[in-house]
Amino acid sequence: MRDQTVDVSCLGCGGVLFKKGPLDDRGHWARQVASGSQLEPDGTDTYYKCPHCGAKNIVVSETSPHGVPQLRISHVKK
Ligand SMILES: [Zn+2]
């Protein structure tokens, strides 16, 4: 597997939330577990709290055309 990680940025301030790396060779990605913010629930949403500006980066779960669940940051909530 290629050693190729990409920074995932806060939609509020552009600061780095965590890094992600390729999960396979079909375009799927996974968060690098040792890096950055943890996924947190707040009752209705699941989010990454930005360590830089404190915004909640709300994530939505999607299923790729290959049937693999993928998380995508949809918007920020202050
Ligand atoms: Zn931020």
Secondary-structure class: mainly beta
Number of strands: 7
Estimated radius of gyration: 13 Å
Number of helical stretches of at least 4 residues: 0
Quick one: overall form? Answer: globular
Q: Are there runs of 5+ residues with pLDDT below 50, and where?
A: none
How large is the share of residues in beta strands? over 45%
- How far apart lie the N and C ends? 37 Å
Biggest sheet architecture: 4 strands, antiparallel
Numbering strands along the chain, what is their spatial order in the largest sheet?
A: 4-5-6-7
The average pLDDT value, as a whole number, equals 90
The oligomeric state is single chain
Bound molecules: zinc ion
Proportion of residues in helical segments: under 10%
Give the helices and strands as they follow along the chain.
EEEEEEE
The figure for the number of domains is 1
List the helices and strands and how they pair.
Elements: E1 6-9, E2 16-22, E3 29-31, E4 39-41, E5 46-49, E6 56-63, E7 69-77
Antiparallel strand pairs: 1-2, 2-3, 4-5, 5-6, 6-7
Bound molecules: zinc ion.
Architecture overview:
This protein has no helices and seven strands. It has strands at 6-9, 16-22, 29-31, 39-41, 46-49, 56-63, 69-77. The protein has one domain (6-77). A hairpin with a 6-residue loop joins strand 2 and strand 3 (29-31). The radius of gyration is 13 Å and the shape is globular. The chain is 0% helix and 49% strand. The chain is mainly beta and 78 residues long. Zinc ion is lined by residues 10, 12-13, 15, 50, 52-53, 55.
